[in-house]
Queue: 2 jobs
Job 1
Amino acid sequence: MKTYGALVLSMIFWAFSFIWFKEANENFNPLTIVFIRLVFSVIMITTYLITTRKFVRVRKEDRKLFLMLALFEPFIYFLGESFGLTYVSATVCSVIISTIPVVATIATWIFFRERLHRINYAGIILSFLGVLVFIFNIDGSLALNIKGLALLCLAVVSAVGYNLTLSKLVGSYSPVHIVNTQNIIGSLLFLPLFLILDFQGFMTTRFTFDMFRPIIELSIFASCAAFILFAYAVSKIGITKANVFSNCIPVFTAFFSFILLGDKLTFQNISGMIIVVSGLFLSQMNASKKAVNEAVALSGHMA
């Protein structure tokens, strides 16, 4: 019960991350939200690693891999997801982002020649059909903002690049150390953009705690607590079983968005979500390669 409780709680925190971003976006630009979130996350996780004496140095031969890792996620990934969220609802964003494991599974088949089962192929096809239900109306017109869709697709593609890079590091470093290192590099990559584009407006803003609250929640719960809880669950039941729970994130996001943000859930949205989640379950069944599977599970959540 302790393990599964930790898993469910981590999924709820990650589901809330889309909602908290929407709330933060009412007062701050996406670049400011991402930069502050990363800085807070680095401070908290570094403190945790030093306190628990688990802080280690990156080996010289792995520095290029960590640079690529941070470039894919959080840098490109957060640019796509954050700006995409300004054009679409939290529910739609969570469903599109949830297809990362499906696209990553295809990538591992292409690059690593990992064999897939028939049920995995069926799940991949089903997931994409569910996304099409979300994207297109019955008359064939687009149901989503094209800019938002393109930006979210950029986030998905960058997460796949992240997945392929991460699979080379999994096993050599602890997940907590990986997320902290990539967030440190990611903060440095976002710093020039923040200083050039958002810093002046940020300094002239009259701040209140309520304005910062969603960003603090993103940092504490989505970037730190959720990850640590997920890592704990993985250590108890394994990555394959734990990863199945991530398919519930779009459902949680839709439910909480309906209650807190007033997002409307149409029959088309509900149908598309059911199809996508069903496909996700099928696409991840009988996973075999541990390093690749662990990388798939962490893609899109490691910041």
Job 2
Amino acid sequence: MHFTRVAGENFRLFPAFELRPRPGVNLLLGANAAGKTTLLEALYALGRGKSFRGAPPEQAGPAGPHWHLRATVTTTARPDLGIALDWSAEGLTLQLDQSESSLQDLVARTAVQVLEPDSHRLLQEGPVYRRRYLDWGVFHVEHRFYPAWRRYQRALKQRNSALRAGSPRAEVQAWDAELVAAGTEVQQCREAHVERLRGALTAEIAALLGPLEWSLDLARGWNAEHALDAALAAHYDQDARAGKTNVGPHRAELKLKLAGHSAKRHVSRGQQKMLIAALLLAQARLVRERAGLTPVLLVDDFPAELGAPFQQALIAALLAYPGQVFVTSIERTAALAQGFGDTGKNDPDNAVFHVEHGSVSTTSRV
């Protein structure tokens, strides 16, 4: 998929903007606080229905508590899918091709991933970030995953409610059969995806970081020597004391190690950024291969924490990526100049935009 037109009104510092990107790599250049990240946020919201910045939707522009985003997207299934996202005091509304739609419909028909400063959480913080990363890919490539995940979440909620209420054991365990059936399916989908992800990640890590000893494993959230029903029975007393279910796929952990050590403790920030880029690129290629949907990649503050060799490796990977990419930077570094300058390839699929406070310049093709 790729965006052919993106427009917004009263979104952050932009009274209005319109962007007509190219299907390849789009470079957004501008000073700090010019609005580059805001443009990426708009693209992300149009593909996910939310911001990656953690900011509430009511943080609108100077015209008051409302904003509007519009986009036209080309996919293999639809050449001109229209997306409209509006927020006002009444709440958030979403339309696909002028029909009211759900966030699930939006995420199923589009695919957007972002590499930005807070992406370090994927390696540095708790397992919830890695489960979200994993499940986004599983959602797109395993059609039975989402229904099973929803069934699991409903059963888990009911079981936890019974535990908190101090209900008799029989009432708590009445939810175990559904929890086991749905949870086992969720785990099977995840395991199949992780196996494929290892293969895709091999090439991306080699291209971005060179020879490296690494491993990617999925801890399923309960003792691997036991089935889920046995694990639930064995942990019942602990669950009753805690008022929540302590084993199951909701406790799964995706573990990335380098030379046998956790990636969050034994690499530099620059290496972490390159590892996360490798994870995103590998996931995106899997979604393209298995779902026929090529994700749009957003890279905010490209040079940050990256020395010249890492910058050169990353821009080469992005230029080789078979989908649409948006990259922001305060300047055209030497690495960026190789792809977007006099020494770069004259590729009509790539473009450069100049962002100033509240405005975006006309596209300059490379």
